[in-house]
Amino acid sequence: MPPFLKINKLSAERILLFILSFVFLFIMHIFLPNIGGVIAKQVEYVIWFCSGAVVFIAGLKVIGSKTIKDSPLKIYILLFIALWIGSIVFNPIRNLDYFLISSAWLSGGFVLWFALIQYELTVRQKLFILFLIFLSALIESMIGIIQFFGLYRYIPVSPSPEAGMVGGVFQQKNLFASWIATGLIISLYLISTAWLRSFSKAKKILFFSGVFVLSLSLIIAESRTGLLGVAVAMTLIFISRWKNYRAIKKTVFVLIMIFIAGFSTGFLLLSIQDQLSIEKLALKKIKWFSDPEQISYRERILMYETSFEMFREKPITGQGFSNFGSLYMYYQAKVKKLHPQYYKGTGNQYTHHPHNELSLIVAESGGMGIAGLLILLYGVLRFCKKIGLTRAVAYTGLLTPFSIHMMLEYPLHLSVAHWFAFLLIGAIATSHFLKKTELRIKKILQVISVATVSVLFLLFSVFIVKIFIAYNQLVIWYIDYSEGKQAYIENLIPAKENIYLRNWAMPMYMFYSAENALKDIDKNKEFLLDFLEWAEAEKKRIPIPQVFQYDAFVLFNLGKHFDRFEYLSEAAKSTEEGLKLYPDNQELKNLRRVILVEAFKRILNNFKKNNLKQQA
């Protein structure tokens, strides 16, 4: 155990290191069922709790020492956040639940970053934190290898349905790859430090073995995001640490050879899996990486073009912070209509993020968001000038795998672990030139402050526990429902009433309740009419295809039951609305066909009745 971790006396810094060790070496790698990409899995709630504990301890440290540390970057970050969120002043909030979640994600990130810079970490402690992330990437890498060979059938570490699919506990290959890429870049940075050179020979062998495993895992992950992140980050790290590497040429050579060996082994495993020769696999991968006509590339171009369309309509204030998901599918339909052939087969799934953080900010906040970004960039450049170009490039390299991932996806929203690690590395990078301010507070005010901070942390902990319990009940309900078992609505209600989960749970509750209500229409007519009102509002809040399907289905059944042609007409209109956004949705197409057949029968029967009346 490193000397600085030996507990001679308890300190905030030692507690922080224990919390981080707990998160990165254990919590992050526990697999539990997850029912959707944007709903955090259970272990992530523990990371939230640990984040709250980090903030709580930092608060006690500030109060106890009567000293607070401030960063020159704070004002620039706050202005950026204010301008992005402030765009909502000029736009209606279309989805209050998601607005609160997005606001918490953004402001919570600032609070955690500010709390982290309050800790007085030594250089060795900072390196140890980076080493923890390296070890976490190694653990995740081994889980990915187990998954690749299909051994998860015997060791339940991953939900992947078949061998050769790598996602680890992140359940998504790009999240897996960017995490592995970060571990690789940290290893490249660590070998240039005196701390790693002080390792014993046995520890160095284990370290380099870990590098081999990471490089192998990056290849079998088959992620363009991960490969691009490693390539750019390696370039930056080599540029920034060149003087250090010149003194350890042999070590650098060994590391590069291990990189190449790991890449080659990963490539060999892929060739065996695909049953292709190395030459044919290489040609296949070159095309996979560079072909701009691939669906995944065209889908991202569609997202970017749609984001620009949203910006073009409201260039000053944008569409409003957190409103992207409510409006995206409507604007996407316009873009696809203008380029039907190029975008054929793309954009059929609802999304609340354009897979690019810059596009999101520009679409939601327009000129205000751009101004915020420029202010933040100015602050960062000023800070880089202070700390020196070499150090600034090195920190940029450490953050590059995440940064590139953020330009091609949304890892900080999909994974709390990525959000946590990004802020942690960011806090290490910005922990220079901090200004200490003495707080002149009396003892009674200290006591009140400690009590206040403790109560806030207690409330936060209760909130996390309630989410954890509600989410587990939601998982139970969802598994029972999807497997055709009896799903008890009692398991769904806590999530429906939870401020974080209800954004996803409320639609599930309404759809499920509508299915049951249609079994006895006369008894549940009032609820079904309320459902139609809810569905109409939901089309503007979260326009997922199921909203249009269930809206049309309920109208269709009401039309048949009460023999009301206007209900059938509204049902057909609802399917048409849905098909404008989701033109390839087969369920909506089938439902429209059934509704039109029923409407035609009604028209034909009415025509026959009118003829009989005229003849009589």
Automatic annotation (TrEMBL):
Transmembrane regions: 15-39, 45-63, 75-93, 99-117, 129-155, 175-196, 205-221, 227-245, 252-272, 358-380, 392-410, 416-435, 447-471
Entry's Gene Ontology cellular component terms: membrane
Domain of life of the native organism: Bacteria
Membrane topology: Multi-pass membrane protein
Keyword vocabulary terms for this entry: Membrane, TPR repeat, Transmembrane, Transmembrane helix
A Pfam family of this chain: Wzy_C_2
Major place of residence: membrane
UniProt subcellular location: Membrane
Name of the protein in question: Wzy polymerase domain-containing protein
Species: Thermodesulfovibrio autotrophicus
Source lineage: Bacteria, Pseudomonadati, Nitrospirota, Thermodesulfovibrionia, Thermodesulfovibrionales
